[in-house]
Amino acid sequence: MPLTTQILNRLFNVTLPKNSTPKIVIIGAGFGGLFAAKGLRRTDAEVTIIDQQNHHLFQPLLYQVATAGLSPSDIAWPIRNILKKHHNTKVLLDTVTGINTQDSEVLLGDKTVPYDYLIIATGAKHTYFGNNNWEKHAPGLKSIDDATNIRRQILMAFEQAEMCDDENERKRFLTFTVVGAGPTGVELAGTIAELARRTVAEDFRHIDSRSARVLLLEGGPRVLPSFPEKLSRYAKYALNDLGVEVLLEHSVTDCNERGVVVAGEEIPSATILWAAGVQASAAGRWLDCKTDKAGRVIVSPDLSLKEHMNIFVIGDTALVTDSAGVPVPGIAPAAKQQGRYVAKLISNRITGDVDSKAFRYKDYGNLATIGRKSAVIDMPGLRMKGFLAWIIWVLVHIYFLIGVRAPLAVATKWAWQYLTFGRGARLITGKK
Amino acid sequence: MPLTTQILNRLFNVTLPKNSTPKIVIIGAGFGGLFAAKGLRRTDAEVTIIDQQNHHLFQPLLYQVATAGLSPSDIAWPIRNILKKHHNTKVLLDTVTGINTQDSEVLLGDKTVPYDYLIIATGAKHTYFGNNNWEKHAPGLKSIDDATNIRRQILMAFEQAEMCDDENERKRFLTFTVVGAGPTGVELAGTIAELARRTVAEDFRHIDSRSARVLLLEGGPRVLPSFPEKLSRYAKYALNDLGVEVLLEHSVTDCNERGVVVAGEEIPSATILWAAGVQASAAGRWLDCKTDKAGRVIVSPDLSLKEHMNIFVIGDTALVTDSAGVPVPGIAPAAKQQGRYVAKLISNRITGDVDSKAFRYKDYGNLATIGRKSAVIDMPGLRMKGFLAWIIWVLVHIYFLIGVRAPLAVATKWAWQYLTFGRGARLITGKK
Questions:
Q1: How close, in Å, is residue A280 to chain B by CA atoms?
Q2: What distance lies between CA A372 and its chain's CA centroid?
Q3: What is the C-alpha R_g of chain A?
Q4: Which end of chain A, N or C, is less surrounded by CB atoms within 10 Å?
């Protein structure tokens, strides 16, 4: 055992197995987990990455699957395939049920996976602020299955409206409500409006899909609250232009099979999509450690736990603050940076370098798109809106996709859609 | 009412509503139904096409979705979208429950759709020869949902083998059995063998996916029985070359959760795919008319029913014989020709031309592919096998796809796969 490892062990009560390759376990193959695995490729360690799904998902484009613009396989790739050249890395398709920090084991039902270092990157899920019964009426968008289910629901609403003889029912089917005006809510509402106004406009004989009502409900005073106020104002204007009704300072008080209740008034709506609240995954419970209100684990400046210096929590599961004390946003680039940072830190420790610089978030800015022709960009030194911003948005996403898989097919598809207003993946599949 | 219509009415007891546009109802939007609708585009009639799915499916490539080569949206397109320029045509997404020939109405649960002319093109489904309990162990391949379920099952078998500690269980997970050596069975077995031998070969750490056993069971004496014997022999040789074990004259006597029983011997196999028997849809029962053993409706030379000259049955649902008395095969080109023929015949009748020439099947031949590098072609005047046949197979399919949608994206995807041996749609989605 190297001297430094011995010192480490004494200092932090970390027990590494003697004379064996260190075992690194990563839970979650989102941006954080995947880039941690990528960073550990050349490390002399046994790396195991565990995920409930067989695929890594390019989540920033998931709304495109939900609105029938892209196919699942355009934005998701088998984790095994991405990591197939990583000969030190094993991929496990399984569900973590807990962590035994005493014996340094990850629990998968009755199986266990021992670790010397543990990286937890299990992300976040949507929350209904205590109203979990709303979920079945107002699904959220986190996985491929969520997206294909929402796609089916949106397309079926048009079909049901077409078949419906009752005027009020027809209106209910043609009312689409998106709750929450963060980037996902804005993207969903904008794309649904385009779908109704343009893409399916010629497809029906009884209804005029252009008459569909698309509502975007936001409890706060503006859309895209994480952007500068000027860009929020522009986004609201651009949404209106697409035919989206934006209702600010309208909090939802109920979701049921008829529709949504806002400020005491029931709005009949067959499709309600939830893009309002986010709650960190169960990691805090597994570790029995301190979390913030949103369930995010409070970590040290090097993203480890105070009590267990060999356990790291990254991405949406962790509360990380930047040098100014502001929480790092829950976006893909932040998770990637944290994954890379932790991989480097663990590699250093394994080779005996125990000094660790604190994680520093590099802010490359924030983007959101509003339909097919405008976007807002808030980067250090660059604020933009409109069509040129949309072009940059597209280029940035293609650039980031390159990190995972050749994007030629996806780029072709986008271009084709842009030219024809057709949405290629308009399939109603699966059971209702 | 034109004189001819009156004569028609008297002659055949067909009641057309007075002074109104004739109503044509098409059940099923497969190749037969879709090409009937296309043929009726300029006919002065109200056309309604009813399907249980919102999409037309290019079934000849469905095995590619089941084996993770293509995405559902590469081979399926919304019926509404294909027919959006047909201003005389309405698309109904609904399930037919029966036909009231007395009142000339199609029944959709408690709704009815009246018709003056009816075209039934409801296709076929797989049959288990009375052993319907085999279905849950040995799914067949007819719909997009079938294909994504089979895809999940195949990919999960590798995952389960990777996680499995028991030698026998691991073997069971790595045994893939295809029942029936018609074109679909041959295509499935060949592609699964390639998936195991090449595509996922580098993905796993505990198992060697190349050791997977792919079995093709056929009750008859040769593979591809509808092809000339010489091509059957070649196909068997080519399958062996890909690593498929072909067992001829091996009839399945049981399928259960452990595996398949053949000639008294149980072969443990976690994945069993059914490509053996085909049974026509329920149309014969709806119409209460004469069918053959496979449930196909026996039609007149003009594809109508003897008892109801305004009802036509086409495609896999009908037993049609060519001039030599040989049944027309249940393949896409035959269904398309019948759809076009019936559309023309009905158009003629509406404009007063009651003469109808009998349907004549034009045989363009038969193709089947065996993996990525060989195919067999049996065309009038041309028999081919091997790589060049495969190139022709690809070109023919791209040509036929053009009839429905621009195939550029699909062609790109194929080329990419061919060069890289990657299969792009390797996603495990949906519930188990």
A1: 23
A2: 21
A3: 23
A4: C
